[in-house]
Amino acid sequence: MISLHDLRKSYPATASSPGVEALRGVSLEVAEGEVHGIVGESGAGKSTLVRCVNLLERPTSGQVVVNGIDLTALPESRLRQARRNIGMIFQHFNLLSSRTVQGNVELALELAGLPRREHKGRSLELLEYVGLAERARSFPSQLSGGQKQRVGIARALAANPKVLLSDEATSALDPATTADILGLIRQLNRQLGLTVLLITHQMEVVRKVCDSVTLMRDGLVVEQGDLNEVLTRPDSDLSNGLFDLGPQEAGAGLALLEITFAGGNSSQHIISRLARQFDLDFSIDAAAIEVIGGVNVGRIRLEASARDVAASGTLDWLRQQGLIVRLFTPPDDPAPDRSDGGAADEGGRA
Ligand SMILES: Nc1ncnc2c1ncn2[C@@H]1O[C@H](COP(=O)(O)OP(=O)(O)OP(=O)(O)O)[C@@H](O)[C@H]1O
Ligand SMILES: [Mg+2]
After folding, report:
1. How is 282-297 classified by DSSP, letter by letter?
2. What confidence score (pLDDT) does residue 232 get?
3. Of the candidates 56, 52, 76, which has an alpha carbon nearest to the alpha carbon of residue 65?
4. d(CA 43, CA 51)
5. Shared domain check, 224 and 258
6. Cα–chain-centroid distance for residue 299?
7. Is position 131 within any domain?
8. Considering the domain boundaries, does residue 304 fall inside one?
9. Among 220, 221, 219, 222, which Cα is nearest to 21's?
10. For residue 50, how far is its CA from the centre of ligand 2 (angstroms)?
C-alpha cells in the first residue's frame, strides 16, 4: 500500500541554517491493512519522511508509491486528488479554535469535495466513529487533549482515506489517553482496513499497536521488519530499548545468561526446563516480558555458576530451542567461546 524507494531529502544551507541531509536513502514497504511504526531519536528524519509520503515535502530523489500510484510522478492537480486517499493527524491536533467540533469536521468534508447537503450527516457519522458525537457543538477549547485528537482523527477520515499518517499524535497525551487513542487507531485499522504509518519516539507506542517497525537514525534505516521478528534479533536496538534489563555485571565466578524469546517459549517454560534438564542452580537477575500481537516476547537474565554453565552445555541446548542467548562473565573468569571484555558471546539462533 505504501512503497518508498531510496528516498533522499536534502535541505540546502541558508543564511540561518546549515545544509542538512534529512533522508539519506530510505526504503520502506507497508502492506495494506498494516500498522507500521517509525521510531528514532529527535532529528532522525521521521517527520521529513512522513511529509514525503503525501508529498507535503517533495523528496530530492526517490519514489513514493501509495495505493499503486507513483505520487512523485504526478502533476500538482492530480496530486491533490491522490492526497485525499491519505489522512493525517498531528501532535498538536491542528483544530480551528473558532469552529465547533462538528464545524472542524465539516471543513474537512468541504475540502474533500463532499456536497454541502451531506456535510451534517457525514460529520455526525464520523464523530460517532471516534466516540465524540455528544460533543459535536463544543469548541476545541472545551475538550481534553484526547478528545481533540479524536476530532483530529474524525477530520482525517473525512475523505475515506485508505492510508492514515500519524506524526507523534499521542506525544502530548498522558499514558491512559495515549492508550485510548492507540486503541481507536487500531480499531479503525481493523474496521476500515486503514493502513497506518505511525511516527513516534516512544517504543511503548510501537509495542501497543504496530505490526511492523522501522528504526531510523541520521536519515537512514537501521532496523526494519515485523515487530516480533525485529525484537528477537540478537543485539537489536529496538529490543534493547523495549527490554532494557539495566547494567549487567556478573559477580566473581558467576555467569549471566541473557535469553531473548518469543512465542512458544515462555519464561516459565524456559526456566523449568533448564532446571529439569541440567540440575543447575540459578537465580533470576532481571526480566522484561511483553505481550506483542498476542505472543509473549521478552528477555530474562539468569545468574549461575560460570563453571557449571560452561560444563553443562546449557548454551548449546538453549540455542537448540531457538532462543537468542548471550553470556556475560566477569573479565577474568574462564568461560566458553568468549570474545572480549565482559560480553562473552553474541549469541544467535541455533
Ligand atoms: N524545513 C527544514 N529546513 C531545514 N532543515 C530541516 C527542515 N525540516 C527538518 N530539517 C532538518 O532535518 C533533520 C530531520 O528532521 P525531522 O523533523 O524529520 O526529524 P524527526 O525525526 O521528526 O525529529 P523529532 O523527533 O524531533 O520530531 C533535522 O536535522 C532537521 O533540523
Ligand atoms: Mg518529528
Report:
1. EEEEEEEEEEETTEEE
2. 79
3. 52
4. 14
5. no
6. 19
7. yes
8. yes
9. 219
10. 9
Q: What is the pLDDT of residues 299-326, one digit of tens each?
A: 889 998 888 888 888 889 888 888 888 8
Residue-range definition of the domain harbouring residue 10 = 2-231
Residue 298, ligand 1, Cβ within 6 A: no
Structure confidence at residue 55 (pLDDT):
93
pLDDT digit string (tens) for 8-63?
999 999 988 889 999 999 999 999 999 999 999 999 999 999 999 999 999 999 99
CA of 42 to the centre of ligand 2 (A): 7
| Residue 168 counted as domain residue | yes
**Ligand 1: which atom is nearest the Cα of residue 49?**
18
Place of cell 552445555: 313
17 occurs within a structural domain: yes
* Predicted pLDDT at 249: 81
Give the total number of structural domains in the chain.
2
- Predicted local confidence at residue 336, as pLDDT: 52
Phi–psi pair at 161, nearest 5 degrees: -70, 160
**All cell numbers assigned to 148:** 481533540
Q: How far is the CA of 140 from the centre of ligand 2 (A)?
A: 24
Asked whether 38 lines ligand 1 (CB < 6 A), one says no
Residues of the chain with confidence (pLDDT) below 50: 338-350
Model pLDDT, residue 350: 32
